[in-house]
Every structure is written in C-alpha cells, then in structure tokens.
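Problem 12. The chain below contains 118 residues. Write out its predicted structure in token notation.
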Amino acid sequence: QLQLVESGGGLVQPGGSLRLSCAASGTIFRINVMNWYRQAPGKQRELVATITSGGTTVYADSVKGRFTISRDNAKNTMALQMNSLKPEDTAVYYCNAEIYTPMMGRYWGQGTQVTVSS
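Solution.
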C-alpha cells in the first residue's frame, strides 16, 4: 500500500529553523511533481512549495528566500528546509505527490505540526 509519511515538525522559536522530510513507500513506478502544503487553524490549505522530477522549484511568495524544497528521486524522498521561521508559519504541513503505480494518483501524507512561538 502506497503511503507518504512526514517527519520533522515541532516547536521552534521565531527566527529558528526546522527541516521537514517526506518519504514515499510502496509500489512506485515514478514520482512526478511533489508539493508541500500547509494549513493554519481557521484557514484554507495553501501551497507552500513545489518541485518537479527534474528539480524545478516554485515557492509561495510568503516563504521565498526562507524555505528550500529538495528531493531525492532515487530514495523517493522530499524535504523542506525552513529558515527564519515566523509565527505566521505555524500550521500543519502536508506532503503531496503525483505518483505512478503505474496508474497516476495524488497522494497525501498525514501531516506534521510546525509551531513557531516564543
């Protein structure tokens, strides 16, 4: 059974850093686009960063220059390095990916909580 599992969330002070990881497991032919989303309390889920299989990245304006998305195609993993964290970055962060098994489907992780507070 295919699944995405996030790790690395936690509590950090403003200005601090965290690194989130996402690992895909199961029968995987190929992973296309991978994304990080986040959802803060009372708000809609928003796209934070995207990375294609070729390594092209796109970021939300709110995280540009502070967050870096990366992936390891050989290991079916993705990461989000978050620096200069702000209280408004507090949210549940979700891993999302388009995965061919060989049918293409969009899969979500269970989410990991990131709290930025002093």
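Discussion. The CA atoms of residues 67 and 82 lie 4 Å apart. Students who got a different answer should revisit the alignment rule from Section 12.3.
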